[in-house]
């Protein structure tokens, strides 16, 4: 996800112990997360909160993050995260997209920093973007072979969705769902990044605008193809111009996640860190807890294929 004004909007906490676990497309049972209950300070039952101690969508100076890789890894160790994925943008105009030399330097720096410590699992990844409503993406198979965790989002160059958004909301919603169905057919793609980030367009498409029947169809295909749903902590950013109240968005997103959980889709949590939000996944964990997602559907980083291991 692009940074720009977003990071001014985000007041990220320096990782309140959040994050934890990832899954491999071949095998995947979560070893760590546990459902916890937290007092809310209000009458009624305590809050359901699925504790997950990973952050599998983050950025560094190799794209639009604020910190170099050495500091990024050092922070993950200091915050006692179980795992992070460094997923800088592999999109037209980005550093690692434009230059093979920069891409090689990026991978070498990740390897150097992770091999010198044993505190945190560090995955070498990238975030691609969907190019159009057919599901074509900006990352090719040759580069993907060198990565361990590949994400893809809807971004500013995604034709028919966030770029050249249809004026007809029904057409827009249909394009978003067709794009995600197409992404499921990309064999080297692991994760759909911050799905349904469609609130800052004109028209806006809120989670409740997507027909449940079509969501179930997408969820079934994601489960079949082993694609992970990224519950991104700063989802409110993508709806900051829509007028929806934050807690109303949370309630709608919980219902969305329930549909995907029922189809046995697997989930990860992330901060999509660009500044100082590494490990800040409290909202993500609240959503998973309220949706009743079991720990067995959270990805386990220990099972993700590591290059050279």
Tag the structure with descriptive keywords.
alpha/beta, globular, two-stranded antiparallel ribbon, disordered N terminus, TIM Barrel, 9 strands, 309 residues
Looking at the structure, what is the overall shape?
globular
- The radius of gyration computed from the alpha-carbon positions, rounded to a whole number of angstroms, is 18 Å
What is the element string, with H for helices and E for strands? HEEEHEHHEHEHEHEHEH
Average predicted confidence as pLDDT: 88
Considering DSSP H and I runs of 4 or more, what fraction of the residues is helical? 25-40%
User: What's the domain count?
Assistant: 1
User: What's the total number of strands?
Assistant: 9
CATH architecture: Alpha-Beta Barrel
Q: Figure out the total of helices.
A: 9
How is the main sheet built?
A: 7 strands, parallel
Cα-to-Cα separation, first versus last residue:
29 Å
Question: Which class in CATH terms?
Answer: Alpha Beta
Strand order, largest beta sheet: 3-4-5-6-7-8-9
Q: Which structural class should the secondary elements be placed in?
A: alpha/beta
Q: Per DSSP, what share of the residues sits in E-state strands of 2 or more residues?
A: 15-25%
CATH fold descriptor: TIM Barrel
Give the low-pLDDT segments. 1-32
CATH homologous superfamily label: Metal-dependent hydrolases
Fold blueprint:
Elements: H1 6-9, E1 34-38, E2 47-51, E3 54-58, H2 69-78, E4 83-89, H3 95-98, H4 100-115, E5 121-129, H5 141-144, E6 149-153, H6 169-183, E7 191-192, H7 212-225, E8 228-232, H8 246-262, E9 266-270, H9 282-291
Parallel strand pairs: 3-4, 4-5, 5-6, 6-7, 7-8, 8-9
Antiparallel strand pairs: 1-2
Helix pairs in contact: 7-8, 8-9
């Amino acid at each position: 996800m692009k940074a720009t004004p977003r990071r001014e909007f985000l007041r990220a906490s320096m990782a309140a112990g959040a994050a934890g676990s990832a899954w491999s497309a071949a095998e995947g049972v979560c070893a760590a997360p546990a459902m916890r209950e937290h007092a809310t300070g209000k009458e009624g039952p305590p809050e359901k909160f699925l504790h997950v101690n990973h952050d599998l969508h983050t950025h560094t100076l190799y794209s639009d993050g604020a910190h170099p890789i050495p500091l990024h890894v050092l922070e993950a160790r200091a915050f006692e995260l179980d795992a992070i994925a460094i997923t800088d943008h592999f999109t037209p105009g980005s550093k690692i997209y434009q230059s093979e030399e920069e891409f090689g330097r990026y991978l070498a720096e990740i390897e150097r920093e992770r091999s010198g410590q044993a505190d945190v699992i560090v995955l070498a990844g990238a975030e691609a973007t969907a190019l159009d409503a057919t599901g074509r993406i900006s990352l090719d198979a040759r580069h993907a072979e060198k990565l361990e965790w590949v994400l893809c989002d809807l971004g500013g160059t995604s034709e028919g969705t966030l770029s050249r958004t249809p004026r007809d909301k029904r057409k827009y919603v249909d394009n978003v769902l067709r794009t995600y169905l197409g992404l499921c057919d990309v064999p080297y793609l692991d994760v759909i990044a911050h799905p349904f980030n469609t609130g800052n367009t004109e028209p806006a498409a809120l989670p409740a605008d997507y027909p449940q029947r079509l969501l179930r169809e997408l969820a079934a295909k994601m489960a079949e193809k082993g694609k992970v749903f990224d519950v991104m902590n700063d989802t409110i950013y993508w709806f900051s111009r829509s007028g929806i109240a934050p807690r109303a968005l949370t309630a709608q997103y919980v219902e969305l996640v329930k549909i995907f959980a029922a189809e046995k889709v697997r989930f990860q949590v992330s901060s999509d860190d660009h500044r100082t939000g590494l490990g800040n996944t409290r909202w993500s964990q609240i959503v998973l807890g309220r949706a009743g997602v079991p720990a067995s559907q959270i990805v386990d980083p220990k099972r993700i294929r590591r290059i050279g291991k």
